[in-house]
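Technical appendix A lists one of the benchmark inputs used to test multi-chain prediction within the project. The record comprises two sequence entries:
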Amino acid sequence: MGGKRILTKYMKIFILPIIAVGIAVWVVSCSKQSESSTASAAPGQMLITGAGSTFDYPAFTKWFEAYKAVNPNVQFNYQSIGSGAGQKQLLNQTVEFGASDAPMSDESMTNAPGKILHLPVVAGGVAIIYNLPGDPKINLDGNTLAGIYLGTITNWNDSKIAALNPGVSLPNLPIIPVHRSDGSGTTFIFTDYLTSVNDAWGNSVKKGTAVQWPTGVGIGAKGSAGVAGQVRQLSGAIGYAELAYADQNKIPYANMKNAAGNFVAPTPDSVSAALATAKIPDDFRFSMVNAPGDKSYPIAGASWVLIYQQQKSESGKELTDFLKWAITDGQKLSPSLDYAPLPDEVQQRELKLLDTVTY
Amino acid sequence: MNAIAINVNRKSSGVSHFGDSTFKWLTLLMALSVFVLIALIGYELFVGARPSIQKFGWHFLVSSSWDPVNGVFGALPYIFGTLVTSFIALLIAVPLSIATAVFLTELAPLWVRQPLIMFIELLAAIPSVILGFWGFYVMVPWLHDHVYPLLRSSLGFLPFFQGADHGPCILSAGIILAIMIIPIITSVSREILRSVPGLQREAAYALGATRWEVTRIAVLSYAKRGLFGAVILGLGRALGETMAVTMLIGNAPYIGWSVFAPGQTLASVLANEFTEASDPLYSSALFHVGLVLLGVTLLVNALARLLLVTFAGPGMKPQH
């Protein structure tokens, strides 16, 4: 009985006000929301929806904000739900543009209800991060990296690693390779690189946003934060993460040997250099790993915006205008976010492709 | 007077009949809605999984190849991981929870009881992602540095405690699961022990039983069915737990003896791969994994109930 009485007392003192406040907040936020949604439906206002890559999300957020100065009548709603989901939503025509870290497969392209255009909007490098006592700066090449992730190179004092790092004292420490356990564009770029430089990798694991990692080798962690956190905690660990992530969290990363034989650090400049020398076909579905050029960083990839060539929604013109702005003026914002800006030549070719869009 | 009284009686009984039947149908409707919900979820999962079911069939359950690049899928390592982590969790949580519940109902003085109950309920309110973060940054490094080496040196002759240990592993996931299900099992067990009639205890005392004997004979054996139910509730949560497990299990498919090896569960593979699964067969295989998870949960529950009937007998129902 005593317990019950205390309970009713508590109800009166705490629970009822909490419920009241909760309802009040709900009502207020609902009315606010309806205000903003009526605002977007007002004449002259356009709402453009997109979905996809989480890798692009920081760039989009910055662009949407900056684009208000160019055209204040356009509003954006971008859901960073992953490249795969972005492609699906575009195919189902529930969004006006998708964003993906991997180009769409031929199968999906032929099954699509219209012709889909690929527009590279950002390019970024994937840094090879590691945790070694004393934080020495190390060099690696593609075959060594493939050996580590295939489980054939298992210790930091392996002669293959030592040969790339004269003068660096490498400890006798087991290597713990850490990979992304969730599907990811970063994994696509990483495995795309290993596939292009190492036959053993290309014949077994191959490339994809999620792959079957060799059994018994290392551990998987969710998200860039998970990989970086795991590498930081485990002495002897090696992993891969977007350059921005490694940079902002001050995790040491390796210099990678590029196609020209130079050891290059991942920076927006070295990724831009790779973009400039990469062979880019007219449909822009290209891979820029192991690009030629003295200064090119080899593990890099682009991220694409996907749109239908035949725009059906009434905001088709606004979307095209925005994309034209993003691949030209918008690129000036990229380096501050650790993305590589698109070279002029690529920008011009993309503008030409955007001119073929009908609405 | 008499007639009026009868009249009133009839009237009120008529009203209460109407109320009773409404009440009955309403509660029946509510109870059915749970059933319908599970059936709907099962149906939707089946529809999503159909391409994968058609392609792999029963082979899906016994194959350990999960290769999104070549479109070959099998869920055996994930089924293994789910069962093993849940088993470890129960191994740790059940003795701890039931002992806590016994202490709270039988032994603890009142001033300890209330705060302790509050803390246990607080533990239940911690979101799993917070437990995951805590586990990732605090618990696992600590276990890796202090506890696992100890286990290896003292029990290393057992196959369970051999092999490389990187921190995140099946045992780490089992321990975080144990932490998550302890509050559920404890709270439910406490309620069940409380419902054991006082007469039961007094009778045992009267026969000259010690406190331990009273607890064992009069309380625990009286309440064993209910306690078993509490454990099943905890098991249900352990089987389906996603976020914290994903952060601590190391996410590499594994079947073997070592609890230091990284593993993967049905729920963690879903959490990891669902967002980026663009290929239709790939996403269908993930639906299939969801269907298997539902199946495993139902099967484990059914088995547990079968065990209960076989070993505990029909038993006495707690009286209210």
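DSSP finds 13 helices and eleven strands in chain A. The mean pLDDT of chain A is 87. Comparable benchmark entries are summarised in Table A2.
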